[in-house]
Design brief:
The structure holds 2 protein chains of 2 kinds.
Chain A (H helix, E strand, L loop, with lengths): L3 H26 L4 H18 L1 H16 L2 H8 L1 H7 L6 H6 L4 H15 L4 H11 L4 H11 L8 H25 L1
Helix pairs in contact in A: 3-9, 7-8, 8-10
Chain B lengths: L1 H17 L3 H39 L1 H8 L1 H7 L8 H14 L3 H17 L9 H11 L7 H9 L9 H22 L8 E3 L5 E3 L2
Antiparallel strand pairs in B: 1-2
Helix pairs in contact in B: 1-2, 2-6, 3-5, 5-6, 7-9
Classes of the chains: A mainly alpha, B mainly alpha.
């Protein structure tokens, strides 16, 4: 697997410049006035940025308050029994709770867990897999719906949170399974 | 969403009081509002870049071509969107960017896809089935290689930082399948029915 990392790194380094050149090139071949069309499209960037502000403010204020209130530590203390049932290490819980709420927050927590428990331990690996298989659901919802002015999000929140739960549980169980074998 | 939003703040008040952290809660509320604007403004540059590039791809016919290529899969996932609609192309671009972990590109492309989906959405303030499915897939994470997590493992002197790749791929697969299944199942529930708020403020529910 050692060849994988450099390969992946070069994909992520090359992908963007290559796209930025290849798409306009394809445009020129088809006689599209690429510069003018680019500027026309880029104009919308500002409006989109401004349009998502109220949605982001609403969600980030609520999440900020929740994090600062210590509610998560409280939940952590009271969920220990439930965690034993599903086989999730207690140290991973803060990450599971933080993941849907904040990207930078959960990355910080992941760093702590990996440093403290060791990167090759069950806890460290569970945390890393969990981080890799879930997303910051509330941020994505606020930004995506906000950008087009959707107010009623219907079942998107429930489906997103269920997906996070599935990612969290399968991280716990799959890592357990792999480390036994 | 109304309840989740309120409960997050309601619990903050209660636990802030119990833990004696009301000062921190106040600061966090203000900081959250500021951070939100910073994030949104920070997005503008990258957003303009990718929306510009997407416009070229659209004018060239690349977006439509991509949509046509993946039509068989996409029409199943998003039955309420016409098969060769540009929305499908934008969705594909966003999912591809997410799969390869190009976070910078993924968000603007996702917003482009949302614009296209909104164009074919008959109820402008209410999310369509396709939007909910798209969001669920996006929030479930479709990243094939969690580069960030691997980098963190390497930084912590892991003997084998890439060990997590296979389990993470499997867990991601599970969460994406659950996202799609949940979106398909939940949309039938009356609680999540499409409704538009009329001018009088009454909710008008459609069958």
């Amino acid at each position: 697997m050692s060849y994988l990392i450099p390969m992946l790194q070069s994909i992520s380094v090359w992908a963007i410049p290559v796209l930025l050149v290849m798409i306009p090139l394809a445009g020129l071949v088809r006689r599209v006035p690429v510069y003018e069309v680019f500027v026309e499209g880029a104009k919308e960037g500002f409006q989109v940025g401004v349009r998502i502000i109220p949605f982001l403010v609403a969600i980030m204020v609520a999440i900020g308050m929740f994090r600062a209130s210590g509610a998560m530590e409280f939940l952590g203390r009271h969920l220990q029994y439930a965690l034993q049932v599903i086989g999730m290490p207690v140290d991973v819980l803060p990450l599971a709770l933080m993941r849907p709420l904040s990207g930078s927050g959960s990355l910080g927590i992941l760093r702590d867990i990996v440093q403290n428990a060791g990167p090759d331990s069950l806890i460290g690996r569970t945390a890393a897999v969990m981080y890799g298989s879930t997303e910051t659901t509330f941020y994505v919802l606020a930004v995506y719906f906000g950008s087009v002015g959707i107010r009623r999000s219907r079942h998107a929140v429930a489906a997103g949170l269920l997906a996070d739960l599935a990612g969290i549980l399968s991280a716990v169980w799959i890592v357990r399974l792999f480390m036994k074998g | 969403m109304n309840w989740i939003w309120f409960l997050l703040m309601g619990f903050s008040l209660v636990f802030g009081a119990i833990n004696g952290r009301m000062g921190e809660v106040t600061d966090a509320a203000i900081a959250g509002a500021e951070l939100a604007v910073e994030l949104a403004i920070g997005l503008i540059g990258v957003m303009a870049l990718w929306l510009g590039i997407m416009k070229i791809a659209e004018a060239t016919g690349l977006v439509r071509g991509l949509a046509r290529l993946l039509k068989p899969i996409l029409t199943r996932l998003f039955p309420d969107v016409p098969g060769d609609d540009p929305a499908m192309g934008a969705i594909t671009m966003n999912l591809a960017a997410n799969m390869f972990g190009l976070g910078n590109a993924a968000t603007p492309l996702g917003l482009k896809a949302m614009q296209e989906l909104q164009r074919v959405n008959p109820h402008k303030e209410c999310a369509s089935d396709a939007m909910c499915t798209f969001l669920a897939i996006n929030t479930s994470s479709v990243q094939l290689f969690p580069v960030m997590a691997v980098a963190l493992m390497a930084e912590a002197q892991s003997a084998e930082p890439t060990w997590i790749l296979v389990p993470a791929f499997l867990a991601t697969l599970v969460s994406t399948i659950v996202a799609i299944t949940a979106a398909r199942t939940l949309r039938r529930l009356p609680f999540f029915a499409i409704s538009n708020t009329t001018e009088s403020g009454e909710a008008e529910v459609q069958a």
